[in-house]
Amino acid sequence: MPPPEARFLADAMLGKLAKWLRVMGFDTHYQPVYEDETIRQLVNEGRLLLSRHYPLIQMYPHSLLILSDKVPLQLEEIRARGYLAGDIKKRWFTRCLLCNTPLQEASFDDASKSIPDYILHQNIKELHFCPSCKRYFWPGSHRWKMFNQLKKWGFVY
User: Fold this and answer.
1) d(CA 137, CA 8)
2) What pairing do the DSSP bridges indicate for beta strands 128-129 and 27-30?
3) How much of the chain, in percent, has pLDDT values that exceed 70?
4) Which residues contact 50 (CB under 8 A, 6 or more apart)?
5) How far apart are CA 8 and CA 74, in angstroms?
6) HEC readout, 66-121
7) Reading across the β-sheet that carries 63-65, which strands appear in turn?
8) Residue 78 and residue 54: Cα distance in Å, rounded?
9) Can you tell me the distance from the alpha carbon of 105 to that of 129, in angstroms, rounded to the nearest whole number?
10) pLDDT tens digits, residue range 24-49?
């Protein structure tokens, strides 16, 4: 059975999948170009390599060949192998979509210098901050669109 805290390494062909795994709160390393040594190091750190490239998968026993080229089917392939099991909804929207860093709660006073005033006046109940890339996140229309997409794909129970 896969570990409940699966950590992923998405190869260069799986950028959209990496984004959606981050939306779902999974630690997912992704970059558009990899050196062989970087992949080796990240797999040795315990990350599951996700790739659509069969020869690359053959080089790493801790890997998963992704057959589909569509994100919902790719997520289903990962779920079918047990890596997206359990109550994963509580993890959603807890990572930076750009840099994969776990988000921290942010104060409205700190955020007021960086986000538009109209956002602060929308009675937002939660505000998060990425300590790495310094971006703020709040439950706005983008988040609802992502939530609805995950629901459409069958990840809302």
Assistant:
1) 23
2) unpaired
3) 96
4) 8, 9, 10, 11, 14, 17, 63, 64, 66, 78
5) 13
6) CCCCCHHHHHHHHHHCCCCCCCCHHHCCCECCCCCCECEECCHHHHCCCCCHHHHC
7) 27-30, 7-10, 48-51, 63-65
8) 16
9) 6
10) 999 999 999 999 899 999 999 999 99
